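INFO  loader      accepted 1 record
INFO  loader      residues=334
INFO  predictor   begin
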Amino acid sequence: MAVHTSDSVRGGRGKGAGLGLALASAFAFGGSGVAAKPLIEAGLDPLHVVWLRVAGAALVMLPLAVRHRGLLRRRPGLLAGYGLLAVAGVQACYFASISRIPVGVALLIEYLAPALVLGWVRFVQRRPVTRAAALGVVLAVGGLACVVEVWAGLGFDAVGVLLALGAACCQVGYFVLSDQGSDAGDESPDPLGVIAYGLLVGAAVLTVVARPWSMDWSLLAGSARMDGTPVAAALLLAWVVLVSTVLAYVTGIVAVRRLSPQVAGVVACLEAVIATVLAWVLLGEHLSAPQIVGGVVVLAGAFIAQSSTPAKGSADPVASGGPERELSGRGTAA
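INFO  predictor   done
INFO  writer      dumping C-alpha cells
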C-alpha cells in the first residue's frame, strides 16, 4: 500500500512539474513577438530578425544536431519539411505580420491552425471529424471575424492579416509532417534532434532569403523602444533567441512528455493570452472589447478543434495539442 502511495505522490509531482514547464513554455513563446517588434520598429527588417532568431538558436542547439546526426540519413524529408514550414515559414510570416498588425491579433489568427488542420483532414484526407471539431472550426472563424473587425471593412492591414494566415497555414504543414513523423512500425525520431535540425535547415533557407550580410548590424549595438522606454537591442535579441526559442521548445517537449499532448495543448492556448497581455503592458497595444471577446472565441474554437478526435471508424486522432507544443511532442516547431 505504501508503494502505491509513493508512486501516486511521485506521479502527482511529475504532473505538477509538467504543468509548470508547460506554463513556462507558453510564457516564453508568447514573449517572442513583444521582444521582436521593437527591433523591427528600430529599423531591422522582419526577415533579418527571424534569421537572427533561428540562426542563434541553431547555434545553441548545434551539439544536439551532432549527437543525432543519424536523422540526416533516416529522415531527410522530415527534417527538410520541418525546417521549411515549422521554422522558416512560421517565423517569417509571423514576424512579418507583427510589423503591420498588433502582436495579439497576429497570434490569434495563427491559432486558426487547429481548425485548418481539420479542414485538411476532412476534405483532403477524406477522414471523418466529430461535430465538436466542426463546432470548433465555426467558433474559430467567427472569433477571427471579431478580432479583425470585418464589420469595419477589415480594421487591420490586409497584408498583415494575410501574413498571419500564412503562419497558420505553415502550422498546418507541420501538423501533417508530425503525423508522418510517427508512422507505425518506424521508431519515432528524437524531438530534440528534429528541432535542432529544423533550426539548422531553417537558418540555411533564411540565409538565402533574408541575406543577413545586407543587415545594418550597428542597430544591435543600440537600443529599441518598448512603448517609449529604451531597451538594449542586444538584450531583446538574447530574449528572442535563448528564451522564446531554445527554452520555449525544450520546456515544451519535456512538458508534453510529463503530461500529454492534449493537456499541454490546453496550456498552449494561454500563449495567445500571454502575448496579448504582454503587448498591452509593454507595447501599449490595446484591443477593443469586441476584439477581446473574439480572441476568447478563437481560443475556445482552437481548444475544441485541437482536443477533438475523429468520428467513429477513423483510427488516428485528428489533432491534439497546441500548434507549437503538439509539434514539440512529436517532432518540432515556431
